[in-house]
Amino acid sequence: MEKKLSLKKLTSSREMSLLLVVVVLCIFIQFRNSSFLTANTINDMLKNYSVTMILALGMMCVLLIGGIDISIGSTIALSGMGSALMMRDAIITNSLVGFAVSILIGLGCGLVIGLVISKGKVLPIIATLGFMNIYRGLTYLIANSQWVAAYQVPESFKAFSQSNYLTFGLMNNMITVMLICYIIFFIMMKWTRTGRKIYAVGSNPEAAEISGIKINNIKLLVYSMMGAICGLAGALWVSIYASAQGDMASGKEMDVIAACVIGGVSLNGGRGSVIGVFLGSLTIAIIGKALPLIGVSQFWQNAIKGVIILIAVILNVVTQRIMDKNNLKGREM
Amino acid sequence: MATKSGRTISAEKKTSWKQSLLKWETLLILLFIAVNIMNSIVSPNYLSVSGLFTATSSFLEKAFIALPMAYILVLGEIDISVGSIVALSAVLMSLAYNAGVPMVLSILICLAVGTACGLLNGFILTRFTELAPMIVTLGTQILFRGIAEILLGDQASGGLTNVQWFSNLYWGSLGPVPYMFIVFAICALVFGLVLHKTTFGRRLYAIGSNRLSAVYAGIHVQKLRLIVYTITGTFSAVTAIFLAARMGSTRSNIAEGYELEAISMVVLGGISTAGGKGNFPGTVIAIFIIGFLRYGLGLINVPSQVMLVVIGTLLVVAVMIPNLNVGKLFKKKA
User: Fold this and answer.
1) Given this model, what pLDDT does residue A10 score?
2) Which of A110, A118, A184, A246 gives the lowest tally of CB atoms within 10 Å of its CB?
3) How many A×B Cβ pairs under 8 Å?
4) How much is the average pLDDT of B28-55?
């Protein structure tokens, strides 16, 4: 009886059902095209989607406190463009400094958003809507509406995303960075005070405030963190595409939010886990990579993605309802 | 104070936000005047009847979305699928027309498609009330755009200019007044009256300020939400008609980002996305502020990138100012 119960709990948990979906998806695609589950394809897929996967972590924190950030595409563009411009003009020659500058710009952007939301008491959707325009405009302005072309980006910076020296040849650097981020966040969200505070603020802000958590500081922290992650993503973006454009990463926010939601993060705050987000963004990556592999026209991709998002969120609600009903039944007995 | 769910209903707070609302309206009108003065300084031809109407034509087709969007924001919800609905209904209209369907019927198809899209949003949201509108409309945003892409790929579907009266919907005018302006004025009037003078409108405010008590008060919350989302779909299709009339052809990537522009207009007008606040005249003024500001900046050849920065800043600052004031008022009282 005991064991059965725990098994039931395991299968009904959000992460397990998502894992099941991922496995089924992989098997299905593998049958249609046997080149899918090869080291090469998986490496490619993770490399190309590592930016989305990293961003999903920051977005998870933002969603956990009940906020939302739709300015991330613009922040990525601004920070990536900022560091790319400095590298073009040879202000920065070291690629590590390039990364640092990009992260700092992103951090600054996130800090401003966080201040406006926490101190100015502007609703997150409105504030980030505004900053989405502002940062996008600034990106074009600082670049003078020009591109930073491939030949202007330093070789070492471009090479970062194409080589695998971080793990001494085991896997691509992008994937390494992504995994490191996931490990850091897993530890932070699970075992540190800050991580638990973020959950507390999200699930019940009033109670969190009464219990002595400074909500404004948590908000500020979360949005700054999101900004810094965008900065990192901006540098990675420039590295992988070997160029910086004014319109880069526009619309990325929707992909990232979708990844979080598929991963079981609630938009009402307080619910979501790092593993869930990993699986959610992995699902997005698999869909994006596999559809061309099994011969689906690129024009079908958005429609399929939309349907999958809708199905995922509706299924989530349905299983939640069934779970609640079962719980109620248990109480009646 | 953290206010995620708790909305304090005390007399004190009511007066203070009423005060700030009063300030808000005056602020908007002042802003509107300032924008117009600026425009007339940079362009001597601006302050003429025809000049002003030309200016309105440059943004009014988007404003049709802002009208029902105001309702949605009053409900405390959001719909980010409207841009995609515009694209899908416009694409289907021009495909129908090119397949030999008469223009009038094509327009009806366009409206029907928009309504159906809105209905789908409303259906999902009312059937699964736990879902956040943001995420459902995000899904349908990608879905509707995706269907438009399936239908048209990266091609354009043109030929709409062959029907003169259809182009005239956008380009034609009655005296100096463009047809579009007349339609917009009527729609805005109806929307404003419905929101402020009917039980339907009062119920929307009731739902927006406290959904639970609205349910207990016997309001059919889900029915009203379904209606509002459906109307939003219909009016997205209206925007699609005018946009198609303006461009003469459609593609699957038109109207990208319209949802954000519509939301900006409504929010600048003082309707909070938290729901239950704001009024309709503010929204209409804000539509014209943003529109004229864009037009004016365009007149002096300000690049569109700077416009992004200006409008974004305007949005953030405008929303922040009354919040800061209210905060100070509270501190004085305490």
Assistant:
1) 52
2) A184
3) 165
4) 85
The residue whose two tokens read 């593609």 is B251
What is the pLDDT, as a whole number, of residue B29? Answer: 87
SS (H, E, C) chain B: CCCCCCCCCCHHHHHHHHHHHHHHHHHHHHHHHHHHHHHHHHCCCCCCHHHHHHHHHCCHHHHHHHHHHHHHHHCCCCCCCHHHHHHHHHHHHHHHHHCCCCHHHHHHHHHHHHHHHHHHHHHHHHHCCCCCHHHHHHHHHHHHHHHHHHHHCCCEECCHHHCHHHHHHHHCEECCEEHHHHHHHHHHHHHHHHHHHCHHHHHHHHHHHCHHHHHHCCCCHHHHHHHHHHHHHHHHHHHHHHHHHHHCCEECCCCCCHHHHHHHHHHHCCCCCCCCCCCHHHHHHHHHHHHHHHHHHHHCCCCHHHHHHHHHHHHHHHHHHHHHHHHHHHHHHC
How many Å lie between the alpha carbon of B202 and the closest alpha carbon of chain A?
24
**Which chain A residues are within 8 Å of B305, Cβ to Cβ?**
136-137, 139-141, 145, 246
The string of pLDDT tens digits covering residues A154-185 is 888 888 888 888 777 778 889 999 999 999 99
Q: What three-state secondary structure class fits A327?
A: helix
Cα–Cα distance measured from residue A269 to residue A201, given in angstroms and rounded to the nearest whole number: 8
Is the Cα dihedral B292, B297, B303, B309 positive or negative? negative
Please compute the mean of the pLDDT values over residues B207-229 and round it to a whole number. 94
Q: What is the ipTM of this complex?
A: 0.82
Residue A307: HSE in the Cβ half-sphere, 13 Å Cα cutoff: 8
- Search chain B and give the residue with CA nearest A69: B134
Identity of the amino acid at A243: S
Total residues found in chain B within this entry = 334
Partners of residue B141 in chain A, C-beta under 8 Å = 254, 306
d(CA B85, CA B143): 10
Cα of A175 to nearest chain B Cα, Å:
27
Per-position DSSP letters for A46-68, written without gaps between them: HHHHHHHHHHHHHHHHHHHTT--
Q: Is the dihedral of CA B241, B246, B249, B250 positive or negative?
A: negative
Residue of B nearest to A201 (CA): B2
In order of A46, A331, B132, the CA distances from B71 in angstroms are 42, 41, 17
Yes or no: say if A132 and A73 are a contact pair by the CB < 8 Å rule.
yes
Determine the 3-state secondary structure of A154 from DSSP. Answer: coil
